[in-house]
């Protein structure tokens, strides 16, 4: 079945550092979504990508839709403490894609360096 | 707009008890979803609905039932709770637009089954 692999699973950030994470799919996607989840909250949509090669920014966040349509990347520039949380990638499920069903990666957890 | 709301926020059940989780959205969205989130597992789709009066099974439907009697509400029922259903439950909604996959999430319900 379809799988989304996110990496890294976790990482530590120091304020001011740039952060990169990525997501790869076992099948071609026509949409990539990036969500962030704060502790005790529901996921919040950060960026939506609908075209291969597309590069979209939301403040300090930049996401790219890979040319192969099987991967996507999220970069955070000049990280700040409130960037901590879990970042999920998501794409449409094949069997239910027409009904908006999504498959989610297992997330990349950002924490502050001790 | 309140967006997507969920009640209750927390609940503790004993094995064998039943309960209903309520999701409400005020965005006039056609599609609604129920997910569960477990550590290291990401978000997994339980059931979904593509409109009032319709429901369908997702990835992990066993032990759950749903109903969508009104467009704005989506109920998730546990008839006989089991410890394996201890999880955080999220509801989401999405508008009916071709090729549009963005889902908007509620704040979650944390359920513990003893």
Give a concise summary.
The complex is a heterodimer of chains A (114) and B (114). Chain A contains no helices and eleven strands.
Largest sheet of chain B: 7 strands, mixed
From the alpha carbons, calculate the radius of gyration of chain A and give it in angstroms: 14 Å
Structural class of chain B: mainly beta
By DSSP, the count of extended strands of chain A is 11
Low-confidence stretches of chain B: none
Q: Could you give the distance between the termini of chain A?
A: 39 Å
Q: Please compute the radius of gyration of chain B using only Cα atoms.
A: 13 Å
| Helical segment count of chain A | 0
According to DSSP, the number of beta strands of chain B is: 11
Helix and strand pattern of chain B: EEEEEEEEEEE
**Beta-strand proportion of chain A:** over 45%
What form of chain B results from the Cα inertia axes? globular
Number of helices of chain B: 0
Please characterize this protein's 3D structure.
The complex is a heterodimer of chains A (114) and B (114). By secondary structure, chain A is mainly β. Chain A contains no helices and eleven strands. In chain A, strands 2, 4, 5, 9, 10 and 11 form a six-stranded mixed sheet that branches. In chain A, strands 1-3-8-7-6 form a five-stranded antiparallel sheet, with no helix packed on it. Chain A starts with a strand and ends with a strand. The model of chain A has no long low-confidence stretch (mean pLDDT 91). By secondary structure, chain B is mainly β. Chain B contains no helices and eleven strands. Chain B has strands spanning 4-7, 10-13, 19-25, 31-38, 42-51, 54-57, 65-67, 73-78, 87-94, 104-105, 109-113. In chain B, a hairpin with a 3-residue loop joins strand 4 and strand 5 (42-51). The model of chain B has no long low-confidence stretch (mean pLDDT 93). The chains are: A mainly beta (114), B mainly beta (114).
